[in-house]
Amino acid sequence: MNDLSRQATRLEAIGGRYDPWLYGAVAALACLGVVMVASASIAVGENLGVGPFHYLVRHVFFVAVGIGLAVVAMRTELKTVERYNQLLLLGCVVLLVLPWLPGLGVSVNGARRWINLGLSRFQVVEAVKVLYIVWLASYLVRFRDEVNATWAAMLKPLGVAVLLVGMLLAQPDFGSATLLLAITAGMLVLGGVNLPRMSLPVVIGLPLLAAVAIFEPYRMRRITSFLDPWADQLGSGYQLSNALMAVGRGEWFGVGLGASVQKLNYLPEAHTDFIFSVIAEELGFAGVCTVVGLYALLVGRALYLGLKCVEMRRHFPGYVAFGVGLWIGMQSFVSIGVNLGVLPTKGLTLPLVSSGGSSVMMTCVAIGLLLRVSYELDRAERQVARLRQDAAPAEPADESPTVAPVSAGAYRSAVRGAAASAPVARHGRGTSRVEPTFGGFA
């Protein structure tokens, strides 16, 4: 076995480690979610006659399933995931069609967002978020030169997003549609799109979204009730006014775990969309700051890992980390903002905390992908460190064999293999790579 073969074998034997900060933030949020679902859902279960711990048992079950899916994602090489990028996009379209199939789709309050899986209903948009982020990350890798330089390459993912948004609005699901557009815009900016060119679709899209919200009567009622929930406290402002009362009762350190009054059939969806209000009432300002800090840590680590991956030319893992970070950050921001009355009422769950099935499971899958990114980044850093150590000239010792230094060409080849997982462009243009500038103006 020659020196290069032995060196390759040593590199393959090097493993990585999962980011402990991510582990800590995710574990803390998941544990908090179990505790608060138990506290917020007892009255709901008793009122519906399904037992006080029905929603707790259900939530723990889906968390367990989500952990299993996250472990699968954590143990899957990202290059394997990237290989099926086109199938992932097709899967997004198929999933959004399924709720319209007779016998499979389920309609709740006039919205067709779920499919019946027998044991439970599944909200398809939660899986679409994961699949779409992975596809868009792959697209930004394959066309990162053109995305920064041409209109066509920039507009293609926007066109795909508009198609998916149209299918979501037909369900209807305005919140998820807006979130998908925001994730697309954020990933394009972080992928290096030219900001002046990106401004035109934004200028056109924002008035259209506003029109969709304004010309739908029930959405307009939500906006007016958000501006003054006390004007119709028992009508359109009922949810928000009770949420604000829960937040106000919490003061500095809360009324105590389990002692919330608003969750006793006053606050609708206390265990799902408005669980943050229950947290504010029972744990107070200190609990609110803790929850916000945990989300800031999770999202911050995701964006940090994405930046480190891009710096090491591992673009696909980096863009996946950006996408997951943007998703969790935006959704948690909207959910918290709705509970605090700074955003109009919208049905988005608090990731990893709110009770739910499809939301909990798909968020766990996204976290699994994020942990896999951290593992492969750490592994690449260790491999590069080993290569640099092997490439350093050994100091000669008296009457002892010296280690032959690795040639410069072999070193560069090995570093590229360890630290650059971005695939070669498959669009055949033969242009030199332009590294993303995170939203350049040039």
Automatic annotation (TrEMBL):
In its UniProt record, which GO terms are filed under biological process?
A: cell wall organization; FtsZ-dependent cytokinesis; peptidoglycan biosynthetic process; regulation of cell shape
Sorted alphabetically, the keyword list is: Cell cycle, Cell division, Cell inner membrane, Cell membrane, Cell shape, Cell wall biogenesis/degradation, Glycosyltransferase, Membrane, Peptidoglycan synthesis, Transferase, Transmembrane, Transmembrane helix
A Pfam family this chain is assigned to: FTSW_RODA_SPOVE
InterPro entries the record matches:
FtsW, FtsW/RodA
A GO molecular-function term, please? lipid-linked peptidoglycan transporter activity
Q: How does it sit in the membrane?
A: Multi-pass membrane protein
* Keyword Manganese among UniProt keywords: no
The main enzyme category here is transferase
Show the segment(s) annotated as Disordered. 422-442
**What reactions does this protein catalyze?**
[GlcNAc-(1->4)-Mur2Ac(oyl-L-Ala-gamma-D-Glu-L-Lys-D-Ala-D-Ala)](n)-di-trans,octa-cis-undecaprenyl diphosphate + beta-D-GlcNAc-(1->4)-Mur2Ac(oyl-L-Ala-gamma-D-Glu-L-Lys-D-Ala-D-Ala)-di-trans,octa-cis-undecaprenyl diphosphate = [GlcNAc-(1->4)-Mur2Ac(oyl-L-Ala-gamma-D-Glu-L-Lys-D-Ala-D-Ala)](n+1)-di-trans,octa-cis-undecaprenyl diphosphate + di-trans,octa-cis-undecaprenyl diphosphate + H(+)
Give the E.C. number(s).
2.4.99.28
Q: Where in the cell is it found?
A: Cell inner membrane; Cell membrane
Q: Which PROSITE patterns match?
A: PROKAR_LIPOPROTEIN
UniProt keyword rRNA processing, yes or no: no
Question: Where are the bilayer-spanning segments?
Answer: 21-44, 56-74, 86-102, 122-141, 153-170, 176-193, 200-218, 283-307, 319-342, 348-371
- Pathway connected to this protein: Cell wall biogenesis; peptidoglycan biosynthesis
Q: Which GO terms describe its cellular component?
A: cell division site; plasma membrane
The UniProt entry, under PANTHER family, shows: CELL CYCLE PROTEIN (PTHR30474), PEPTIDOGLYCAN GLYCOSYLTRANSFERASE FTSW-RELATED (PTHR30474:SF2)
What is the purpose of this protein? Peptidoglycan polymerase that is essential for cell division.
Record HAMAP family: PGT_FtsW_proteobact
Protein family according to the UniProt entry: Belongs to the SEDS family. FtsW subfamily.
Q: Per its record, how is this protein called by name?
A: Probable peptidoglycan glycosyltransferase FtsW
What organism does this protein naturally occur in? Pseudoxanthomonas broegbernensis
